[in-house]
Amino acid sequence: MTADTDPWLGALFHGWVHLVTLFLMLLVAYAIIGLCWNRGFRPADRGPVVPWASLILGFGLVLLLRRFNEDLLAAGIIAVAVIIGGLLSRNAEPRGLWVPAMLIAVLLGLGSNLSALLLTTATALVLLLSARQGR
Amino acid sequence: MSRNVRKRGTAGLVITGLVGITLIAGAVFLGPRLAWSIASSAVASTVLDGLAEGPDDHQLPVIELLLEEAGGKGTEAHMLLEGTRYPVRVTTPEPLDEDPGVYELDLLEPPDMLPFRRCRLFRPASTDMLQEHMALWLAGDMGVAVPFDALVFLRVDGRDAGVMQLREMVGPELEQARGRSPLAVKVIDALEHGDHVARKVIALPQDTVLTRYAVRDSLERHVNIDACVRLLAVQRMLNATVLENAWVTGGADGRIYPVLTAASLMDGPAPDSAATGNALFAWIEEDAELRARRDRYLEEARKRYVEQEVFAEQWRQEERALMPSLLQDRSKMARIVEGHPYRYGYSVRRAVRSSTASRNTAIRYWMDMAP
């Protein structure tokens, strides 16, 4: 490894590990609420633990907010994401999970890991304690 | 299991495998130690630093550079320091449209309350961000002339640039900035590069005709010998291999004295007198009385910093002031591998761990020093 490529590769590696870590954090959060959501259904009716669409949309949101963290721009991105989450909740499975999923992604994107952890826990508890008919 | 589920499972495995391969490739190209260091910092800064929400307000001074008003290198810009606007000339050697990581500033209308006229803002070189700052603090506390040095939080044109070190650039205005003299001094990097008096000072210790007392009398007239003795004591306290010092001539008391321009903590071993490469320092260390004075300064410092815990308390104070700014710093940058010249982001966890290790290493070294 030459002195010219080493810093570039080091910075790339740092950024890459950062992104992989963010993805894993989001994946774990979605897996927790996905498992709790599925607990309310019979095995035959259960969907995927982590829907790919919500994971990709959520990760995109995390990346956007990490990149554009100025107040106004971030507020716009969050507003659009919540509206899209709300619309998807009416039409796509798992209904009702899109908005909390978007909000968890928003919090991770803003670097508020503790809030994201708390929201994940609260969502998981609500899903575990709520009746299936409500979904 | 349905075909779709199997396909999705396979796709997930392939993606996980590809990510794993990129991480292994990084470790191979960078070497396991550097790769581990970078990866652990990236994970810690992503996961742990985000847990500290709403950190306290900055305790470090906040400096904002308004460079957009400047037309480029060498033109006038402004510096906001704690709400006060100072016109500055930016002499940064690198283009300003990129983040150079170093800003050199000349204050155009320097106020009396600022202890410097020219300064340099740069990213702290050590992982704990405190080593160099504390080394200069210790040297100043032991009575050696040092440049003003402080950790600050820097913003450039409204964007956070993170925690930086502000250090006075030692120059002719050294004594003016400290209110010691209205006149400019001359700063030279080595006595050989000075005027005839400075060159005479270098030649005196080698004069075989003069007795040792005569040499000492002559030196005392031209050089602040006590400042030199203190500097040699500081070198041993810092366990520094090299002394990075300049010489000030034309000062208020008319005598030449050394000024430390940079310092680091525990990068030793400190050399014996023959290895200093400076005839004046070598002569001082050969003199039994001056050597005894140096050892007395060392012992006094050791008592003050270890037994009275002044050093540890000062370090903790600096650390407490640093942490809120470090937690707010989204682009945390420092050298994360000792001796590695490049900089990457790193985590607060690393800063705290490294800070404790550095402080304890210094204190242990002083405890082991022979009284």
Mean of pLDDT of chain B = 84
Tally the helices of chain A: what do you get?
5
Q: Looking at the structure, what is the overall shape of chain B?
A: globular
The largest β sheet of chain A comes out as:
none
Stretches of chain B where pLDDT is under 50 for at least 5 consecutive residues are none
Helix proportion of residues of chain A, in percent? over 70%
Percent in strands of chain B: 15-25%
Q: Span from first to last CA of chain A?
A: 56 Å
- With strands numbered from the N-terminus, the spatial order across the biggest sheet of chain B is 1-2-3-4-5-7-6
Helix content of chain B: 40-55%
Supply the number of helical segments of chain B. Answer: 11
Q: How much strand of chain A?
A: under 5%
What is the structural class of chain A?
mainly alpha
Radius of gyration of chain A (CA) equals 17 Å
Describe this structure in words.
The complex is a heterodimer of chains A (135) and B (371). In chain A, 74% of the residues lie in helices and 0% in strands. Chain A is mainly α and 135 residues long. In chain A, helix 2 packs parallel to helix 4 and helix 3 runs antiparallel to helix 4. With 371 residues, chain B is of the alpha+beta class. In chain B, the strands form 3 sheets. A 7-stranded mixed β-barrel of chain B has the order 1-2-3-4-5-7-6. In chain B, helix 10 packs antiparallel against helix 11. The longest helix of chain B is centred in the first third of the chain and has 28 residues. The chains are: A mainly alpha (135), B alpha+beta (371). Chains A and B meet through helix 1 and helix 5 of A and helix 1, helix 2 and strand 12 of B.
